[in-house]
Design brief:
The protein has about 290 residues and is α/β, with parallel strands linked by helices. The chain has 10 helices and 10 strands. Bound molecules: iron/sulfur cluster.
Length: about 290
């Protein structure tokens, strides 16, 4: 399982917008939907795999949105779900190594190469995917949005997220820091830390969220105890936190000074967060 989850390409076959992955955090097969073909994002995380794989392209297109061909996206998604359902996805592709119990589609995830909520077609495409899920997926298949929480104050985004939540959806929102300084270092975003916290706090007052936090060795230093304590205190201020997923970098980072935490270091963070917050916390080692 460890090798297949390490294999995480965001391109498959001739598809433009969708790709299968075996995801540790999903607990099995996930179909990624990429709404950011130009890597549009308002963060530039030090561990971002998109930047690692395609630095030049990501930088060049960092501020350009592009129109998605929503009909093609639906056709591709329908075809890929069909390949899961008839088993052909697991024949003659790298996914043939997928263990039998992982061959069930756990979720359709808006993730891809950038921040999905920045797409001007976000609402329309979420609605289309929700309709398709109801038509051809099992009840248990979720729709997941992976977001950096920077747009959760926008009414159009929150309205869409409510639709998604009502359709067996989950919002997985990133929070990688307990202080503004650490946030700036890791996200390299112009958006203030307090803005992200306010977005998360307001949104989670009335909606459930899963918090995702990536910690790593930066210049050979793990996040110190005070950073983790403050991070945990911030989590306590949020409303409906379903669970917290703490992980470290599992693949190549764009910066050579960003490296995975050891299992012991990750365990220490996880234990501290559990103790301070009493929330359900899952941790994911680098391999
Ligand atoms: S928010 Fe996501 S897509 Fe954007 S830079 Fe960070 S890891 Fe990459």
């Amino acid at each position: 399982m460890s090798s297949i989850v390490q294999h995480h390409p965001r391109r498959f076959h001739t598809f433009h917008y969708v790709y299968p992955v075996v995801s540790r955090r999903s607990g099995g097969l996930s179909i990624g939907v990429n709404l950011s073909p130009t890597a549009l994002c308002n963060f530039s995380c030090v561990y971002c795999q998109v930047l690692a794989e395609n630095q030049e392209n990501a930088a060049r297109n960092a501020h350009a949105a592009t129109l998605i061909d929503s009909d093609l996206l639906e056709t591709e998604l329908r075809q890929l779900i069909g390949m899961v359902n008839d088993g052909s996805l697991f024949r003659n592709t790298w996914l043939s190594r997928t263990p039998l119990e992982k061959r069930i589609l756990r979720d359709i995830a808006f993730s891809g190469d950038g921040e999905p909520t920045l797409s001007p077609q976000f609402s329309k495409i979420v609605q289309g995917v929700a309709d398709l899920r109801r038509e051809i997926c099992t009840e248990t298949t979720k729709i997941v949005l992976i977001t950096n929480a920077s747009t959760l104050h926008r009414q159009s985004v929150t309205n869409t997220l409510k639709t998604l939540l009502a359709d067996n959806g989950e919002i997985w929102a990133k929070l990688d820091a307990g202080t503004a300084d650490y946030f700036r270092t890791v996200s390299r975003s112009a958006i203030p830390y307090e803005k992200i916290l306010t977005n998360l706090t307001e949104f989670s007052k009335t909606n459930p969220v899963v918090i995702q936090s990536c910690f790593a060795l930066l210049h050979n230093k793990e996040p110190d105890n005070e950073e983790i304590r403050q991070y945990a205190e911030r989590l306590k201020l949020l409303g409906q936190v379903q669970r917290v997923q703490i992980y470290t970098v599992a693949r190549l980072a764009p910066e050579s000074w960003v490296l995975p935490l050891s299992n012991e270091q990750l365990d220490r963070i996880t234990e501290t967060v559990r103790k301070i917050t009493a929330l359900p916390v899952d941790s994911f080692y680098s391999a």
